[in-house]
Batch of 3 targets.
Target 1
Amino acid sequence: ELGITAPKGYDVSFHYNVQMEKHHFGQTHPMKPWRLVLTKGLVTSYGMHHAMKNYTTRAATYDELVSFHSQDYVNFLGSVAPQPTPLDVDNPNPDLRFNLGGSDCPLFEGLYDYCSQSGGASLDAARKLCAKQSDIAVAWGGGLHHAKRSEASGFCYINDIVIAILQLLRVHKRVLYIDIDVHHGDGVEEAFFSSDRVMTVSFHKYDPHTFFPGTGALEDNGPKSEHNPGAHHAINVPLNDGITDEQYQWLFERVISQCVQKFQPEAIALQCGADSLAGDRLGKFNLLVQGHSSCVDFCKKLGIPMILFGGGGYTPRNVARAWAYETAVAIGQEEKMASTVYIPDHAPYRQRFEYDGHLLPSIEQILGEPRQNRNPQKKLLEIVQHVTEQLRFVAA
Ligand code: ZL4
Ligand code: CA
Ligand code: ZN
């Protein structure tokens, strides 16, 4: 019996719909919605649902989707039929518009439902924050940060984050968006390029020639046109392969504490893409669940209302492990899960963890070959200094 109980003094809410799990991008496509099944399974088998308000979310409506996206795009998304046969990757259908139907953003059965369910869960999380009915709202089905107003991009069709932040802005003066997915949060950054009410901060692997989407250089801080209030409100932290927990944590805390001090956000939107973990199929960082989740812990301790979104993550068992652990961080019960996370493959330790008389599932962290660390400390210091300089232009 783990004795998971509700946190004292604040509320955590969990926003989920099983409809999202069942969609398939295609057999070998890296994005696997069933990683959400694994995550939910860990969360419930540890009894964490007893410590949260659990909401079964509905799909976002057409009107909610067009709060950010163009009507043309949403109409098209709703009308495209899934391809009868898998598309030839070298010959994506030239008739298809809005970057839909290629190998990154395929058309599949139930696509519109998948997109609107993801948007609906994130919007529900935002609404609970606005109504002060939740202090930390968890929406692991969201976090699809690449989608543009009129374009699908990088496995993302509907930008649930932008839709949720627009909702937060109805009540909160300033929103800080933080993105720890290994990819640059370009869609969210672009959506708020001209706003001084949203500051975006993305940590990502940056290599304009070889790594998607190729944007997010240190110097890119929002268009510096004469009357753009959003200038200096985009912060980018470009990184290289192999970054470690110690370095990432060091950088995250220095960058985020400065942003919070200067910008004084009333809400935080944290995209927790798990492709920044070691052993990811697409990412090449060396982060463990410990390092990744320390970002969630750090933000939680700021005491600012927060939404946790999912995002990337292509080694499904690692994704589930990270997001379940981060759910435990949200409810302040991470020590109950610590041993299964800190000790990767020692079978005997598993027996210690029981809940309602059942053995708890233990999902080992798959690390793969450690990546060579290509992040000299000198580079990281330069990043912190650049951020300090940018923030001189920012006033709360
Ligand atoms: C795949 O195996 O870098 C898609 C995509 C489909 C199945 C069979 C087709 C094989 C890797 C990726 C050919 C695939 C060719 N299948 C993919 C420039 C690219 C053009 C497309 O985490 N090819 C594009 C997008 C990135 C590119 C990353 C991250 C999302 C997020 C938030 C999006 N696109 C080169 C790649 C496969 C596939 C195998 C793939 N695509 C890896 N990286 C990309 O930030 C959710
Ligand atoms: Ca990122
Ligand atoms: Zn990613």
Target 2
Amino acid sequence: MAWTAHTIIQNGKAIPFEEARIHPLAVGLAYGASVFEGIRAYINPVTKRLSVFRLEEHLVRLDQGMKFMRFDDPPSRDELRQGVLDSVKANAPDDDAYIRLQVHIESLGNQSTTGKVGWVCAAIPRERSPKRTSGLALGVSSWTRIADNTTPARIKATANYHAGRIATLQSKADGYDAPILLTREGKVSESAGACLCLVRDGVMITPARDSDILESVTRTTVMQLAAELGVPVEERRADRSELYVADEVFLCGTGQELVPVATIDRLPVGDGKPGAITMKLQEAYESVVRGTTDAHAEWRTPVV
Ligand code: PMP
């Protein structure tokens, strides 16, 4: 049964979901001065308890974003950690939850305004990708990935998602599920809301951190799981043409989780069916996020 979110945490206080407020001229909205994290909490099928996956890593990345954005007096990591746990607890979900933790400038002003920083944390239900077993149809976008010397992808700023949205809407209009974005040099970067991995000759390849990617928590997780399964991992620049000759391709991210790619630019990836390594990694990912294995208990923060 799908649960509904009735409570949101705003600036540390639990309030009814519909009552969260920010002024339309707040710098966080008017100039996109806002950073956020998308986090998931998973239910264990046996204990029925929820735990948040890799909460500390998300909080570290958010700290980096707040520093980069030069926020005055940002909320502490302890406050935000508590906010995440409270947002889940307050809604008592009977299933997985998707958590959006967002920090923004609440002051009114202009591009040079810093001022009062506010935050919200919402736990909401979120469907899993309907293509988890069948695979996505992706298209290489004619839009270019945002560059590090303009709007760094490494910083999870809400404003980055303007570029991601343009590419996503175009890819849907063109009949694809999602775009693959290339860097200005024409190397593979990532999708609009997830990182990309290829498998060639049994080796998992993922674009390096200087490929204008978000330094994804899931990507790091999957690289570690692959190594533990004995799959060699290469973190390096990847050519566009490698997408067409890869044996397997998949996307990974908190929201997408781990989803196979069936076609790219309407060419089948491998034989067009989800690959063996991809599905092995999907299974391994599922068991660490949900805690159906004892491995990596340090990645799961129980919601208590
Ligand atoms: N790239 C982009 C552009 C994203 O928006 C996301 C989702 N946050 C990811 C990659 C995956 O990051 P993570 O694994 O940390 O959720």
Target 3
Amino acid sequence: EGVNVQEYTALKCKVKTWSPVAEKELEGKLPAGASVYMVPATLRPETMYGQSNMFLSPKITYGVFKVTDTDYYFVTDRAARNMAFQGIFPKWGEFSKVASIKGSDVIGTLINAPLSQLGEIYIVPMDTIKEGKGTGVVTSVPSDSPDDFIMHRDLMKKPEFYNIKAEWVPKEILPLIETPSYGKLTAQFLVEKLKINSPKDAKQLAEAKDEAYKEGFYKGVMIYGEFSGKPVQEAKELVREALIKSGDAFAYAE
Ligand code: A2H
């Protein structure tokens, strides 16, 4: 894997209401009163104010892993193994899986999203999630991620196709960051500029993603939240530290 280490912020998003299928599958596998957290890995903690949904891949089988008697993390097996060697579970190098569940069965689950303006968000599908990266759980920020924006748009256009309820996908996109070249909704600007029509337009999406990341990081200024007015370069660390301090996130690297 070379020398490049990605420093992610792993966010703890507590499950509030499971989808009926997930509820049934998890029956008897967790102690009464246990909390399960969906744990998306993000490189843009300063955008967490604008979370609108949580993405899971319908095709990936995820695990529920025990952290303490009352707390459990929902991530891929691969991520759990990595976490075991980063001191995230109680015993170094060990992890304990209490359940396996397919992403498709969890769609429609309602979770808490720390820092988000909405407070609670729904889990919806994203086919392009890679099993070999991060935790396999991706939080959607359609204002600043082109991948998230185009998926969000597709879900709004074709809820029946994706087998979701239209009301699970918020209609409004919250502007978080302003940049000189792309305004207040960087992802939308780039998706339109590069004429991206579908989540499958991988090549253009990779270009949009690079461009959005560079412009956002080097020239972006926060226009929402506690650090409004600060450059993204500063706010990124401040938001990350605040989330870790409040217990809503932890550091995860790979
Ligand atoms: B980012 P890198 Cl606002 N499969 O978080 C596909 N994408 C994944 C993933 C997986 N298994 N795990 C994480 N990601 C996404 C926020 C965000 C992100 C914004 C803008 C850009 C952006 C909200 N989604 O990423 O390949 C996660 O989305 C573009 C760099 O490790 C994570 O950060 O560089 C990012 O990709 C990690 O990508």
